[in-house]
């Protein structure tokens, strides 16, 4: 019916108009109390001139810049140093790796409140990966905190203490955060935390991780942020992802708070193209105004007894809708009751056939997506590294259109067996089942299923009661609105969050929702639908492939130069080289199963090639035994700020670094034990081990970023990002080994 179609268009137009875009970046002349991206971005340019891994000269320059800017703002800051040992299980190269910081330097600034009820901490990290300048991650969050502090200082004195915390060595294993929670003078244990991150190169800033009892913080975001964006399905999903940030450590130590990030343009993440020139001012503006709004609300509030409980929440018409998670199950029960009423008299066989057809659509959509993905990704080196394209907008849009056309053709072909009404009712059964399952297992992720099931049930009941032009309009609105508000935003978010390689999750969700819509109006004739869908499938696919974006950069494999000082031999390794690729010097790469002879325990399938032996000095190592404990002192003879220790032949029972004992038990794995020490000082480090009986041997190596310039004149070129095996990306290592006493 035209009236029903009009209702759907009204809903879609309402979404577009009712969800305003974030305020464009404000200029340097913006009001002093407002956040200005133009005032913030110079900070990004200042600290993101070059990679700044912890311990590097650029890293020290960034720390000095922070101290200078805070001093200009009149905010006293101190540098908290410490040694940290920690572990994260299996490394990216297959070994049982640990990561430690010999000297981590956290910058902490404090603005006292007038009558503090609880401290508020704005947190981000100021180091980057060795692979790129880290303009977005985390140059933008650093700039956001500095500009937020400036804007807050322009207003009246605030009630609660405010801490600005810039952690060290986040990229090296959350080491600065580990040192932070061990030092109550740096971060009070009751501080409310807003951690600011960037995982990509653009998009709105959203909460993607929450602390315990954080529902009230979502309420503050909804009330005070000028353009809030949030979805509890994101925070629910993040709990099952392997990603870690400083907030992971803070949350585990009981801190309440939010973890904020933006997600789009994944291929700028941890890469050489994450430069200051690539930073989007509108993205900076949205993150900044969100953080400033939260900070203003928190430093002014009474935080002595914040409400308990978590929330289910989503963005609709430019606002965040939120309710306590205790309502999740009752809403799912209501959806079950509504669906039961809608199914009354429908015939269970017809409904079952409709449910099977509704389930078949996402299955076929996934198959179609997986089949079409290689057409869009062929020749894109960035896809192999990230599972995403530099710009996946066109390709993903084509997949969505193909999914919709597939659904139309499938529904038309099955119409002799399944009427549109039973197709929609069968889909409603599936959505209601998902609503119940998620309400019980994943409360934060239940809202798209529950509200869609409620809308679908209400639409079916209305049409069964009376079918007129008016009821068809209302029925179309009832089912289309929750789909448009809760499902479509999630469909569009998934490729940004997961990458184009997992676009099948988005097309499956869309395919599951589409059968709900035809119940509100009669479908066109089957033959017409099939003909249109078939022609459009071919046309859209051809258009999508032709419009695929150009590859982000010319393929260039990474190279790792490894010198064994004991044998005076050297080797090229590459984790990303393809067939026909050559090292900077010498013959082509050969296949290899791993690099266990150089890095004990590494099982990554490196390609190898012989390399000229350069007279690079080995680390200086000394070992001594005191009872069952062995102390190893090591320093780099060539100024490297990264050391690694591999122990074989005897199991490590526990370890400490420069007197700081690891608070994570060592593995029972009898394989090689691996520890990487970041930010090693020139005088070296002292590692103390307790070993089980056995004939132990230690390999010690140092690592510097970049391959030897005399062998690789292009080593300063932009290389691939540090995704996959970052320890092995464009670096020089020198190793030596000896038996333990």
Automatic annotation (TrEMBL):
Keywords: Membrane, Transmembrane, Transmembrane helix. GO terms for molecular function: metalloexopeptidase activity. Residues 106-294 form the Peptidase M28 domain. GO terms for biological process: proteolysis. The keyword Transmembrane helix applies. SUPFAM superfamilies: Zn-dependent exopeptidases. InterPro entries: M28_fam, Peptidase_M28. The chain crosses the membrane at residues 327-348, 355-375, 395-413, 425-442, 473-492, 498-517, 529-548. This is Peptidase M28 domain-containing protein.
């Amino acid at each position: 019916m035209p009236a029903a179609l009009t209702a759907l268009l009204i809903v879609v137009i309402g979404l577009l108009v009712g969800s305003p875009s974030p305020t464009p970046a404000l200029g340097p002349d913006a009001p002093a109390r407002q956040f200005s991206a133009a005032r913030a971005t110079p900070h990004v340019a200042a600290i993101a001139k070059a990679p700044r891994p912890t311990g590097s000269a650029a890293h020290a320059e960034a720390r000095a810049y922070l101290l200078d800017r805070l001093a200009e703002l009149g905010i006293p800051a101190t540098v908290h140093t410490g040694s940290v040992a920690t572990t994260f299980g299996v490394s990216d190269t297959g070994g049982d790796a640990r990561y430690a910081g010999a000297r981590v330097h956290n910058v902490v600034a404090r603005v006292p409140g007038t009558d503090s009820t609880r401290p508020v901490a704005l947190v981000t990290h100021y180091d980057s990966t060795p692979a790129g300048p880290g303009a977005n991650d985390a140059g933008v969050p650093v700039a956001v905190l500095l500009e937020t502090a400036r804007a807050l200082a322009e207003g009246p004195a605030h009630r609660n203490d405010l801490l600005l915390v810039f952690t060290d060595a986040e990229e090296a294993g959350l080491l600065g955060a580990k040192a932070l929670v061990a030092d109550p003078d740096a971060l009070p244990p009751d501080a409310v935390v807003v951690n600011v991150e960037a995982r990509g190169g653009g998009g709105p800033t959203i909460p993607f991780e929450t602390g315990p009892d954080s529902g009230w913080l979502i309420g503050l975001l909804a009330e005070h942020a000028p353009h809030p964006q949030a979805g509890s399905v994101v925070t629910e999903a993040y709990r099952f992802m392997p990603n870690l940030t400083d907030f992971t450590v803070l949350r585990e130590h009981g801190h309440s708070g939010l973890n904020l990030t933006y997600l789009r343009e994944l291929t700028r993440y941890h890469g050489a193209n994450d430069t200051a020139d690539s930073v989007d001012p509108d993205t900076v503006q949205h993150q900044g105004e969100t953080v400033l709004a939260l900070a203003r609300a928190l430093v002014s509030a009474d935080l002595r007894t914040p409400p308990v409980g978590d929330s289910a929440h989503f963005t609709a018409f430019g606002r965040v809708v939120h309710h306590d998670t205790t309502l999740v199950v009752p809403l799912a029960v209501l959806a079950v009751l509504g669906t039961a009423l809608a199914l009354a008299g429908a015939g269970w066989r017809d409904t079952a056939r409709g449910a099977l057809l509704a389930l078949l659509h996402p299955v076929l959509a996934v198959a179609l997506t997986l089949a079409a993905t290689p057409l869009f990704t062929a020749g894109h080196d960035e896809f192999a590294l990230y599972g995403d394209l530099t710009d996946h907008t066109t390709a993903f849009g084509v997949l969505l259109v193909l999914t919709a056309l597939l659904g139309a053709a499938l529904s038309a072909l099955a119409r002799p067996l399944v009427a549109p009404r039973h197709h929609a009712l069968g889909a409603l059964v599936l959505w209601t089942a998902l609503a119940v399952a998620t309400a019980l297992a994943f409360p934060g992720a239940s809202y798209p299923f529950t509200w869609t099931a409620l809308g679908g049930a209400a639409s079916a009941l209305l049409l069964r009661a009376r079918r007129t032009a008016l009821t068809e309009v209302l029925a179309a609105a009832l089912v289309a609105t929750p789909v448009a508000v809760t499902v479509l935003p999630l469909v569009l978010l998934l490729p940004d969050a997961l990458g184009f390689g997992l676009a099948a999750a988005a097309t499956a969700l869309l395919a599951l929702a589409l059968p709900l819509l035809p119940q509100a109006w009669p479908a066109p004739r089957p033959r017409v639908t099939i003909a249109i869908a078939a022609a459009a499938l071919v046309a859209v696919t051809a258009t999508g492939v032709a419009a695929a974006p150009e590859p982000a950069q010319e393929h260039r494999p990474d190279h790792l130069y490894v010198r064994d000082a004991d044998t005076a031999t050297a080797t090229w390794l590459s984790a990303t080289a393809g067939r026909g690729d050559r090292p900077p010097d010498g013959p082509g790469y050969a296949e290899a199963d791993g690099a266990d002879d150089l890095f004990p325990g590494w099982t990554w399938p490196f390609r190898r090639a012989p390399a000229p032996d350069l007279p690079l000095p080995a680390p200086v190592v000394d070992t001594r035994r005191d009872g069952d404990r062995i102390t190893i002192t090591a320093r780099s003879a060539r100024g490297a700020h990264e050391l690694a220790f591999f122990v074989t032949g005897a199991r490590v029972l526990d370890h400490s670094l420069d007197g700081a004992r690891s608070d994570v038990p060592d593995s029972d794995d009898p394989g090689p034990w691996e520890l990487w020490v970041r930010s090693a000082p020139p005088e070296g480090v002292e590692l103390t081990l307790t070993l089980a009986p056995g004939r132990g041997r230690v390999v010690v190596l140092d690592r510097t970023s970049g391959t030897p310039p005399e062998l690789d004149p292009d080593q300063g070129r932009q290389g691939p990002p540090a995704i996959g095996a970052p320890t092995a990306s464009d670096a020089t290592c020198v190793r030596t080994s000896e038996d333990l006493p």
